[in-house]
């Protein structure tokens, strides 16, 4: 179609969840602005960022929600989760505790959004291979047990970031069509 600019077939609300400092805000800025902030402090102000993407023959507005650092105080509000159709559950491959906390985040998402929400497990910071604490195998096994899609990324090196967002959008689209 030549009216690509005005067309919008779907609006999908996607969440970023996971422990503080795993790289959620940088995954979002890498995907929506192709930017990385090495000294990012807690995100202030921005509730979500949007990106228009074409997936197959559909134009999708991805509305991606980021916390403003409330995860540090376990105070992510229920309105954050409401209406979401997908979530990236992020851990830091160099901090094993952030991987152990993934279960808690998944439960929180399912309880507060909807039980059919599509989840993607994301192991971020794979540029830091030397200090890795979570093996790919360990995460893959966990993902299979929980029936989750799984990907490893680096917001810093721009590895698999687009793929992560696009793959969850594709799966959501399959159910929305
Ligand atoms: P958030 O609290 O989950 O939103 O995490 P941020 O996006 O604020 O990132 C926390 C810290 O990790 C910042 O210092 C980032 O620069 C850094 N960071 C984020 N993603 C990566 C990555 O892929 N690789 C490396 N080496 N550092 C990252
Ligand atoms: Mg953040």
From TrEMBL:
UniProt membrane topology term: Lipid-anchor
Gene Ontology terms, MF aspect: GTP binding; GTPase activity
Subcellular location: Endomembrane system
CC per GO annotation: endomembrane system
Keywords: GTP-binding, Lipoprotein, Membrane, Nucleotide-binding, Prenylation
Broad class of the protein's primary localization: membrane
Name used for this protein in its record: Ras-related protein raba1f-like
Highest taxon listed in the record's lineage: Eukaryota
Keyword Nucleotide-binding part of the UniProt annotation: yes
Family as reported in the entry's similarity comment: Belongs to the small GTPase superfamily. Rab family.
The keyword Membrane is assigned to this record: yes
Annotated source species: Anaeramoeba ignava
């Amino acid at each position: 179609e030549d009216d690509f600019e005005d067309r919008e077939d779907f609006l999908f609300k996607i969440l970023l969840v996971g422990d503080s400092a795993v790289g959620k805000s940088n995954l979002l800025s890498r995907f929506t602005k192709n930017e990385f902030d090495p000294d990012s402090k807690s995100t202030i102000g921005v509730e979500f960022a949007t990106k228009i993407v074409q997936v197959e023959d559909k134009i999708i507005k991805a509305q991606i929600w980021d916390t403003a650092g409330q995860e540090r105080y376990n105070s992510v509000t229920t309105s954050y989760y409401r209406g979401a159709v997908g979530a990236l559950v992020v851990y830091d491959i160099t901090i094993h505790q952030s991987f152990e906390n993934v279960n808690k985040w998944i439960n929180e998402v399912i309880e507060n959004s909807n039980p059919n929400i599509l989840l993607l497990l994301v192991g971020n910071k794979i540029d830091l291979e030397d200090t890795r604490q979570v093996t790919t195998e360990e995460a893959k096994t966990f993902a299979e047990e929980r029936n989750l899609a799984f990907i490893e990324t680096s917001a810093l090196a721009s590895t698999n970031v687009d793929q992560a967002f696009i793959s969850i959008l594709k799966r959501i689209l399959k159910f929305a069509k």
